[in-house]
UniProtKB/TrEMBL annotation:
<dbReference type="GO" id="GO:0016887">
    <property type="term" value="F:ATP hydrolysis activity"/>
</dbReference>
<dbReference type="Pfam" id="PF00004">
    <property type="entry name" value="AAA"/>
</dbReference>
<dbReference type="InterPro" id="IPR047854">
    <property type="entry name" value="RFC_lid"/>
</dbReference>
<dbReference type="InterPro" id="IPR008921">
    <property type="entry name" value="DNA_pol3_clamp-load_cplx_C"/>
</dbReference>
<dbReference type="InterPro" id="IPR036420">
    <property type="entry name" value="BRCT_dom_sf"/>
</dbReference>
<dbReference type="GO" id="GO:0005634">
    <property type="term" value="C:nucleus"/>
</dbReference>
<dbReference type="InterPro" id="IPR027417">
    <property type="entry name" value="P-loop_NTPase"/>
</dbReference>
<keyword id="KW-0235">DNA replication</keyword>
<dbReference type="InterPro" id="IPR003959">
    <property type="entry name" value="ATPase_AAA_core"/>
</dbReference>
<dbReference type="GO" id="GO:0003677">
    <property type="term" value="F:DNA binding"/>
</dbReference>
<dbReference type="Pfam" id="PF21960">
    <property type="entry name" value="RCF1-5-like_lid"/>
</dbReference>
<dbReference type="InterPro" id="IPR001357">
    <property type="entry name" value="BRCT_dom"/>
</dbReference>
<dbReference type="Pfam" id="PF00533">
    <property type="entry name" value="BRCT"/>
</dbReference>
<keyword id="KW-0547">Nucleotide-binding</keyword>
<dbReference type="InterPro" id="IPR003593">
    <property type="entry name" value="AAA+_ATPase"/>
</dbReference>
<keyword id="KW-0067">ATP-binding</keyword>
<dbReference type="GO" id="GO:0006271">
    <property type="term" value="P:DNA strand elongation involved in DNA replication"/>
</dbReference>
Length: 513
């Protein structure tokens, strides 16, 4: 059965979350969106509920009271929503399934600048600058996947400009940049004004240009002075120390992550053309998970559309996959020998909570025992800094943690990076804790004492069951005396290394009252 958008309890309601919540902020926001609600950052006349955790923001509380906005505690919200179980939504398909392997992000790629999703002002600034044929270089800055390069291609196409393209990762040093310089400063371009007007130089990922040879940076600056054609640069990270000097010589055009609502409109258009019906709330969850990356959102929609039903968990898994890819990319770059210390520190700050875990997982490879010991000591220092940052809120130690994680260890990337086992172990630990709590909660119902004595009693039973020498009759009497049942023993078997077969568990009859 298809879930209707109007069936969701908070459709059309707007939430603002403030303070420290017991549930992670991400899970809480996902739950609100799953139930049809919208989450914004600030309180306004359109806000329906202010969801307040501990230590809520006083300004938000004051404004909510002034506007008559209802204030909910986290407990109130959980109680109100506990009985809502959202079933996977059914995708209604009005066309026969398309077996084409063409990617939707290519199929529905904008053909003109007016079709680009988001960053309209930035695209207008780019076109205006190219029309003026200004000799002042421009640099487009913003995260990957938000349309920087695409907007250059389309703007150049519409203005009749031919692009000379280079990638900063491939042209890093003085000699290589000199080749580019020769093309953009040659005298033939100045002899004919028409030739001059129809050329522009695009240099992508400029922050990677100086990682091998500082001379490359100086040659780029010289290129700015001598070029006869417009120069367009792109950078994913404008805070990189490598391009600090370059930015002072350029006009900077900033590209922002694309707003979720703009992505939703784009996804609705694609879904309509593909003959599939997906609730707007689900499209919003996809767009939020994509974190401003239009291409990733479209890829998610294409993947999920192949299913008959979409659950919130499907979308979350896709989000985790995206994060995992970012972690691998960051780790791979950190372990590259040609990447400068400044770049490595920038990379650390992209994933400060997980960078150390990933480096630790991959530091044992080629090299001597002495080298491994030195790296181990260095990563131990990083762990100390990380622990103090988290436990004592000493944020000033972030650069220290970055240095000992990404810069000082002399590690070379292996062909295949391993994902951190620690994260998987933490997930298993959380599951084990839930089982342990369940056992302890069951203890009072069965006349067990609780605490360590309960665990000791259960462990004794498990040992007896594992032993082949103890008569089953004696084990049964002992178990019945403790008022245990199979469920408790099965849970404990899962928590320990004592593995028992279900068949070996004696049949325990309910105790008579």
């Amino acid at each position: 059965m298809k879930r209707k958008e109007e069936d969701l309890p908070y459709t059309g309601r707007t939430f603002v979350v403030t303070g420290t919540t017991k549930m992670s902020r991400e899970d809480l926001v996902n739950r609100i969106r799953e139930l049809g609600g919208k989450v914004t950052l600030s309180v306004s006349g359109a806000t329906t509920f202010l969801l307040a955790g501990s230590e809520p923001g006083p300004a938000k509380l004051k404004k909510a009271v002034a506007l008559g906005t209802k204030v909910l505690s986290e407990e109130d919200f959980m109680e109100m929503t506990s009985h809502y179980i959202i079933q996977p939504i059914e995708i209604k398909k009005t066309k026969s399934e398309n077996t084409s392997k063409e990617r939707w992000c290519d199929k529905y790629k904008p053909a003109t600048t007016s079709e680009i999703v988001g960053n309209k002002m930035a695209v207008t600034q780019l076109k205006t600058h190219l029309l003026s044929m200004s000799r002042v270089p421009i640099v487009l800055v913003g995260s990957s996947g938000i349309g920087k390069t695409l907007s250059v291609y389309l703007a150049a196409k519409e203005l009749g400009i031919s692009l000379i393209e280079y990638n900063g990762s491939d042209y890093r040093n003085k000699q290589e940049v000199s080749i580019i310089k020769g093309l953009s400063t040659q005298k033939s371009l100045t002899r004919d004004i028409h030739l001059h007007k129809n050329k522009a130089l695009l240099m992508e990922e400029i922050e990677n240009m100086t990682s091998s040879d500082r001379g490359g940076l100086q040659e780029v600056l010289n290129l700015f002075k001598e070029t006869k054609i417009p120069i367009i640069l792109t950078a994913n990270n404008k805070n990189s120390q490598n391009i600090k000097t370059v930015l002072t010589k350029c006009k900077v055009i900033s590209y922002s992550k694309v707003d979720s609502r703009s992505i939703v409109a784009h996804l609705k258009n694609i879904a309509s053309k593909e003959g599939i019906s997906v609730p707007e709330n689900t499209l919003m969850q996809i767009s939020v998970t994509a974190n401003g990356d239009v291409r990733y959102a479209v890829n998610m929609l294409q993947y999920l559309s192949k299913k008959n039903k979409i659950s919130t968990e499907d979308i979350r898994i896709m989000g985790k996959h995206m994060t995992s890819n970012n972690l691998f990319d960051v780790t791979k770059e950190i372990l590259q020998p040609h990447v400068s210390p400044a770049q490595k520190i920038d990379l650390f700050f992209e994933e400060p909570m997980f960078a150390l875990l990933m480096v630790f997982e991959n530091y044992l490879g080629e090299g001597t025992i002495k080298n491994a010991a030195e790296i181990s000591d260095t990563l131990s220092m990083a762990e100390i800094a990380n622990a103090r940052m988290l436990n004592s809120d000493e944020k000033r130690l972030f650069p220290v943690a970055a240095y000992y994680t990404a810069v000082k260890p002399k590690i070379h990337a292996t062909n295949r990076l391993a994902f951190s086992k620690y994260l998987g172990q933490m997930s298993s630990l959380a599951a084990s804790k839930k089982k342990l709590v369940k056992i302890m909660n069951e203890a009072p119902k069965r006349s067990l004492h609780g605490g360590w004595s309960t665990l000791y009693d259960i462990l004794s039973v498990m040992s007896l069951l594992e032993s082949k020498n103890t008569p089953k009759k004696d084990v049964l009497e002992y178990i019945q005396g403790l008022h245990m049942d199979k469920n408790v023993l099965q849970l404990f078997s899962e928590l320990t290394e004592i593995k028992i077969k279900p068949a070996s568990l004696p049949l325990i009859k309910p105790q008579k009252e």
